[in-house]
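Subject: sequence -> structure tokens, single chain

Hey, anyone have a minute? Need the predicted structure for the following. Not urgent.
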Amino acid sequence: MDIDLSPGELEFRREFRAWLEQNIPRDWKPGELRGMGHSDSLELRRDFERSMGRDGWLGVAWPVEYGGRGATLMEQVIYQEELARAQAPGLAGHVGLQMVGPILMEVGTPAQRERFLPPILRGEEIWYQGFSEPNAGSDLAGLQTRAFLDGDEWVVTGQKVWGGLAEFADWGAVLVRTDPEVPKHKGISFMVIDMKSPGIKVGYIREMSGAANMNEVFFDQVRVPRDSVIGAVNDGWNAATRLLTWERGVITLSILVHYEMFWERLRDYANATKRGGRRLSEIPHLREGLARTYTNVRMMKTANLRWLAHYLRGKRPAEETSYMKLYWSQAHQSLGDLALELGGVDALEMPGSDVAIHGGEFAVEWMQSRATTLLGGTQDIQRNIIAERIFGLPRGQ
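Reply:
Had a minute. Here:
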């Protein structure tokens, strides 16, 4: 497994790092925004995103013919790592850039590409991903949001949950059931919906941290043009699984950088803080926790790099991304648990408290680690995928 960077890749890193140093807003203070909602930083993030689009730093992996840089897979990894290390503002348009855009390039019509790809690359439009429902999260194929044809329009009715940025989104990429008579995986379509359409109501889901970063969206007889389906009608399941493969796969390398940096802050806190006259890093069970979490993060990195080496040889991401998602969620939870052990009662203090550790980071990180085992597919779903599609075991009953 050779992962040494080439001269061209080193230059790519240097160029992007220099751009970030010059363009991250001076008033962007990520530590002060922990636990806050999207609206608290949205305009600053959107301004930053538009500057990235202006200078050609959005859609770096997109083919040149669609306006991207045609970056190699390793350059994509470098790009994600540099964003994470710089603690740059999160991209409000990440759904369009990382999910919708690639699917449009693969199965979208020429008219859909012409309409939607350029604004995504310029950072001008926000996309919402409407997949999960109240009774169809882990069993996504059990979704009940329906769409039926009425002349030249689809009429959509149903409810979606766990969709970030829906209240600000210009467009939604939504899974709907277009044929209830066929097996549940077969009758689903992937549809573009104008989020300003009559009949759409967006609510908020309050999180443990107090923020409301997730939305629930209600569709009440929303009328959508007939040509809004991405790919073939009733073939939306294939598009959805490709999107989730990306979410579970290469993107975890940027999450890995976040975990490495968080572990370093935990180590520094343990070295600088005393309890009972001893530094926390000298207390055996806490010292063991630091070693265990370090090992978990390194195992995650090794697993990701192993598959990255396969991708660099031309292999497409597939079922093995479930391994990557498992490492991702387990490493995150072990870090969150250690943060509470190290911080004690002060680790429970939320952002805004005078005694909160690192501005409330320990508490927020622990809470977010609980969600990590659910988003992108639960741990049980990942284990089923591994058992059935990699080891060929029979489906569970």
